[in-house]
Design a protein that fits this description.
The complex is a heterodimer. By secondary structure, chain A is mostly helical. Chain A has 21 helices and no strands. In chain A, helix 17 runs parallel beside helix 20. The radius of gyration of chain A is 22 Å and the shape is globular. By secondary structure, chain B is mainly alpha-helical. Helices cover 79% and strands 4% of the residues of chain B. Chain B contains four helices and two strands; from the N terminus they run H-H-H-E-E-H. In chain B, strands 1-2 form a two-stranded antiparallel ribbon. In chain B, a hairpin with a 2-residue loop joins strand 1 and strand 2. In chain B, helix 2 runs antiparallel to helix 4. The longest helix of chain B is centred in the C-terminal third of the chain and has 42 residues. Classes of the chains: A mainly alpha, B mainly alpha.
Chain lengths: 541, 112
């Protein structure tokens, strides 16, 4: 190890030590389910806004989007826009309503007026599937980062990193619960904003703060025609254009169906605080995505992004950290090494905060929805439920570790987009129908959730992502070896088919069955959702 | 632990009474009157951006100033409208929704 690697390693360890300290502190104030799942509902709107930002601005945003812009120019920007506009769905239709009508999980709001067992089973299943897809993306990002920092292309080391991240996230969740997770996310959001702003300023300074000049250099250095125009990555033919629209739909409708975002709305005392937290989050996330534009085009302007370069080989995932090294003075300089280490540590903190949120969400759903409500019919003691939550956090962590290993060559923003497509298909239709349509009932919810889940995951399996896709240079770009080709669905993102299908199934299931109770209780849900009458209050300590 | 309060067999008639109140009808009308049109508007505006990016290549690639083209400005306008809608909704709900919700909530606390 040379001096620079020692520095990098110490910063990584400092980040890890800080998060472990936070987790232990938070564990002291965590006793029952209300603390473990919802942090005692004691966070302020501002704190929760930061935590939402910390939960949402994942490795996909920081590493993935800037990488896509660096490699494919303008088309990568769609991710930034979709990821931001999506927050309006959450703000207007979901956040406050959910805070008033639910308790710990996404399923609570559905279970409010439907048959408990079928809807909770369905919602828990989709929660776990979406979260695992999202977890994969973060772990792939972690593996790529460590490879870069240690400068060794070693499968063994990548796998070790993934295992280490998995172990840490299990620790955060089982020990710190929602309070620990939230504080880790708040600290990460602050670190990420400062770190990105620093790089953005250094990049812009190289171009005298002239955006047009930055764009011009990016286009020239990329060596690609139409780098600043839409269509470089997606505009070749109608199939890829439809793929772009499908991606756009998944991004804008996915956020409000992401279980780990939804449960953040329960951590504040009232629905007004939930609204405030989304407003803070929109400001923070918007500012961050504007910065990704500079990071991406900055990487295109200042780094080698041609075929065979480090940026290209990592699927773009390493564009931001390498850009930090470049603006710090370049490879081999002390300034470059310091900035690279700082940004890599920030990226690592980003990954840790997001994986903790995801693991907590899925373990809450398994323990609260499946174990307590479905298996024990609501009779389980709090101690039992918490024990199950902790065990399931460990199991989910292990599953994610095992699945992350083969997924490593995919761009992390792309993997996250799949999670968004699944969330938009399986979760959002039920959430919207449940709140706004009296006739919606158990069969509608179950058909919509399973229909959306099976169609979106199924279409991905038969898409070019899994098999039958080659890179421009003839190498295999799919997950399966080239000898196996099961692809028949031409789009990489299933949203354009699976989202409308899930809405349709929700409608069809509802109109083909009668469930008077679900309609009667709509009255109660409506009053409670809009006024907050009878909503879960903050913890009494 | 007693039975979980989020089970479907619990029903409190106070909700039916609140549902009948003119304040509630007004609150729901104001809420839906804002969020439905706003959602339709921003989704159409966003999808227009997505579709134009792919099928109006020449228009989107038109250079406005230096290397800044229509596509970039269009994308940045999506940021502006998002911030704007969020800000307008915050003001709208503070002024027009929260007071009604508070009144109804107080009645619930009295009658539950």
């Amino acid at each position: 190890m040379d001096g620079n690697q020692v520095l990098t390693a110490s910063l990584f360890l400092a980040v890890v030590a800080l998060t472990i300290f936070i987790t232990f502190r938070a564990s002291r104030g965590t006793s029952g389910t209300n603390d473990f799942y919802a942090g005692g509902r004691s966070f302020s709107g501002f704190q929760n806004g930061l935590a939402i930002g910390g939960d949402y601005m994942s490795a996909a945003s920081f590493l993935g989007i800037s990488g896509l812009i660096a490699l494919s120019g303008y088309d990568g920007f769609l991710y930034s826009i979709g990821f931001l506009v999506a927050w309006l769905v959450a703000l207007l239709l979901v956040a406050e309503v959910l805070r008033n009508s639910g308790r710990y999980t996404m399923a609570d709001q559905l279970a409010y007026r439907m048959k408990q067992r079928p809807v909770r089973t369905a919602a828990a299943t989709s929660t776990v599937v979406v979260s695992i897809f999202y977890l994969l993306a973060q772990m792939v990002g972690a593996g790529a980062l460590v490879t870069l920092l240690l400068g060794v292309e070693s499968e063994w080391l990548k796998n070790l990193t993934i295992f280490f991240v998995g172990a840490l996230m299990i620790f955060y969740v089982t020990v710190g619960g929602m309070k620990g997770t939230t504080w880790v996310q708040i600290v990460k959001a602050v670190l990420l904003m400062i770190g990105s702003a620093l790089i953005v300023i250094l990049v812009l300074a190289q171009f005298d703060f002239n955006i047009s000049e930055l764009l011009g250099s990016a286009a020239a250095n990329s060596g690609k025609d139409g780098f600043l125009d839409p269509g470089l990555k997606y505009g070749a033919d109608t199939t890829s254009k439809l793929n772009f629209v499908s991606l756009g739909l998944a991004l804008v409708l996915g956020t409000a169906g992401l279980p780990h975002i939804l449960i953040r709305f329960y951590t504040v005392p009232t629905s007004r605080d939930a609204r405030k937290s989304v407003l803070w989050a929109i400001g923070l996330i918007g500012a961050f995505y504007l910065m990704t534009l500079v990071l991406g085009f900055g990487a295109a302007a200042l780094l080698d992004t041609s075929v065979g370069s480090a940026v290209q080989k990592s699927g773009g995932n390493l564009a931001s950290p390498l850009l930090a090294e470049e603006v710090g003075g370049g490879a081999g300089t002390t300034g470059g090494a310091i900035l690279l280490a700082v940004i890599a540590a920030v990226a690592f903190a980003t990954i840790l905060a997001v994986v903790a949120g995801l693991t907590l969400t899925s373990s809450a759903s398994v323990a609260h929805d499946l174990y307590n409500s479905v298996f024990r019919k609501g009779e389980a003691s709090e101690t039992d439920e918490l024990k199950v939550a902790r065990i399931s956090a460990a199991c989910i962590g292990l599953v994610a570790i095992i699945l992350a290993i083969p997924a490593q060559k995919l761009n992390v923003a792309f993997l996250v987009a799949l999670a968004f497509a699944i969330a938009a298909s399986a979760n959002l239709p039920s959430i919207i129908y449940n709140m706004f349509w009296r006739r919606f009932n158990t069969r509608g919810a179950v058909w919509s959730i399973y229909g959306g889940l099976i169609s979106s995951v199924g279409l991905v399996i038969f898409s070019p992502v899994v098999s039958g896709k080659l890179n421009a240079d003839g190498t295999n770009a799919a997950l399966l070896p080239t000898s196996i080709d099961i692809s028949w669905f031409p789009l990489e993102n299933p949203g354009i088919v699976s989202i409308p299908l899930a809405f349709f199934l929700g409608w069809l299931g509802s109109v083909t069955s009668k469930e008077p109770a679900a309609e009667d209780r709509f009255t109660e849900l409506e009053v409670r959702a809009l006024t907050g009458a009878g909503a879960e209050g903050p913890a009494q300590h | 632990m007693t039975t979980t309060p989020d089970r479907a067999d619990r029903h409190n008639p106070v909700y039916d009474r609140l549902h009948e109140k003119p304040e509630f009808t007004e609150l729901r009308a104001r809420y839906r009157g804002f969020v439905f049109p706003a959602t339709v508007a921003f989704l159409i505006w966003y999808l227009l951006y997505v579709v134009l990016s792919m099928w109006a290549h020449d228009f989107m690639s038109h250079r406005l100033v230096g290397n800044i083209n229509v596509a970039l400005v269009f994308g940045l306008l999506q940021f502006v409208t998002t911030f704007l809608i969020a800000w307008v909704y915050a003001n709208y709900s503070n002024r027009n929704l929260d007071p009604l919700a508070r009144t109804l909530n107080e009645q619930y606390e009295k009658e539950k």
